Amino acid sequence: MKITNVKVFVNCPDRNFVTVKIETDEGLFGLGDATLNGRELAVVAYLKEHIKPCLIGKDAHQIEDTWQYLYKGAYWRRGPITMTSIAGIDMALWDLKGKAAGMPVYQLLGGTSRSKIRVYGHANGQTISETLENLGRLIKEGYTAVRLQCAIPGLEGTYGTLGDKKDYLEMQSSRPLPPEQPWDTNKYLNFIPTLFKKAREEYGEEIQLLHDVHSRLTPIEASRLAKELEPYHLLFLEDPVPAENQSNYKIIRQHSTTPLAVGEVFNSIWDAKELIENHSIDYIRTAATHAGGITGLRKIIDFAGLHQIRTAPHGPPDISPIGHAAHAHLNIWANNFGIQEFVGFGGEKMATVFTHPLAYAEGHLYLNDLPGLGVSFNEQEAEKYPYKRSYLPVSRLEDGTLWDW
Ligand code: CS2
Ligand code: MG
Fold first, then answer.
1. Would you say the pTM of this structure is higher than 0.90?
2. What residue ranges define each of the domains in the chain, with the CATH number in brackets?
3. Given ligand 1 and candidates 212, 215, 241, 405, which is best to mutate, with the most ligand atoms within 8 Å of its CB?
4. What average pLDDT values come out for the chain (405 residues) when binned by 10 residues?
C-alpha cells in the first residue's frame, strides 16, 4: 500500500482544526489530527513543505519506521510544531492500517482492557454558587468526576471560566489577537480552598473533584495549595507549576498527598522522563495530537505504566474529533488508563464536518468498532469554514509583568 498523496486541511467549524489525509494506491485513505492551538499554520507549512515530499511513494504500513524517520531523521527533534506534524501523519497511518485490516485501532494495539472510558467534565462559573450549580448539573448527567474552576474575585477572565461567553467555541472566535488577563497569586491562593470546601459541603464525598492551576505557581506556593486542598480529596491537581524544571514536582510531593497531574504541553517521552522515573506525578496528561500521535503517546503510556502512573489525556475543544478518537482507542487498550478529560462533542458546524465513533452516557464514553479510528471528514463542508486567526490569552500581573499561562 503506497502513499500517493498527503493532503492538509485547515478549517474553522467554530474552532481551527488541522486535518491530515493520506491517500494510497489501494484507494484507502487515513485521517490524522495536527491541530496546535494558536500556531496552526506553522504546522501546516511543516507538513506541506517538509514532510509531504518525503512520504510520496513510501509504504503506508511502515508506521514505526516512518515515525523514526520523521523524528530522528529530521535531526531537529521534538518541539510542538514537529511533534504535532508527526502526530497528524502517525494517526493517519494507524487509521489506514486499521481500515486495511478491517479492524478498529484498539485491536491493533492489543485489544481492550475495559468496556468504557471514564471521563471528567468541567464545571466553571463567575461565582462559587454558579460553579456549584454547574457541578450539580454534571452530577445529574452522570459524571463521577468534575473539574472545578471559578473566577477569582478581582481577577477578570480567570483561567477556565467563560466570562460573558456562552461556551468555549464562542470564546475562541473572540480572540483574533491574544487578550490580556490579570493574575494575582495571593488572591488565587486565598480563594480556591473555599471553592472546594463549599463543593464538599454541598455534594458530599462521592463525586471526585479536580482543579487545573495552569502552571501559575512556584513550587512552594503549589505545595501550600496542594496541602490546603488535602481535606477535599482531589482526584488530581493539574499543572501546579510549569514543568520545564521537572524536579520542581518533587518539592510539591514532599509536602502533600494531593495527587498531581501534568503533561498537556509535553511533546515527547523526554519531557516526562524524570517526572515518571521519580514518581513525582500520578497522572500523565500528554495528548496524542501534540506528542507524535499514537506511536508517540503509546511509548509514554507504557513507560508510565512501569511506574504505577496512570493516563489522563488532555481533552480540550482544540483537539479535533480525530485526536479524541485516537485517545479513545488508546484509553480502551491501556491497562494504566486513568480518566479522560471531556468537554462535549462540539457544535453543529463541527458535526457537519466530522463524524466520530464516540457516545457519552453516565460519565463514560463508549467507542464503536468501526475500522481504523472510526472518524469521517467531509471536505466539502469543511471548505465552508476557512481558518480564522485565534490566540490563547496572556497573563500579566497588575504592574504589567508577563506571567506564566
Ligand atoms: C486546559 C486547556 O484542558 C485543559 O486542561 O489546560 O484548556 C488548554 O488551556 C488549552 O487546550 C490550550 O490550547
Ligand atoms: Mg490543563
1. yes
2. 3-104 (3.30.390.10), 109-372 (3.20.20.120)
3. 212
4. 98 97 98 98 98 98 98 96 99 98 98 98 97 98 98 86 79 83 96 98 98 97 98 98 94 98 98 97 98 98 98 98 98 98 96 98 98 98 97 94 94
Contact call for residues 394 and 180 (beta carbons, < 8 A): yes
Q: How do strand 354-355 and strand 340-341 relate by DSSP bridges?
A: unpaired
Tell me which of 122, 214, 324, 364 is the catalytic residue.
214
Phi first, then psi, for residue 238 (nearest 5°) are: -100, 140
**Backbone phi, psi, residue 51, to 5°:** -105, -50
Q: How far apart are CA 76 and CA 85, in angstroms?
A: 13
- Residue 86 CB contacts under 8 Å (≥ 6 apart), including other chains: 67, 70, 71, 292, 293, 296
Question: Which of 318, 319, 395 most suits a substitution to test ligand 1, by most atoms within 8 Å of the C-beta?
Answer: 318
The cell for 281 is: 506525578
In a 3-state reduction of DSSP, which class is residue 172?
helix
Residue nearest to atom 3 of ligand 1 (CA): 316
168 flagged as catalytic: no
By alpha-carbon position, which residue is closest to atom 8 of ligand 1?
A: 316
Note the ligand closest to the C-alpha atom of 160.
Answer: 1
Residue 215, C-alpha cell as written in the block? 502552571
204 Cβ contact list (under 8 Å, min separation 6) = none
- Tell me if 143 sits within 8 A of 119, measured CB to CB: yes
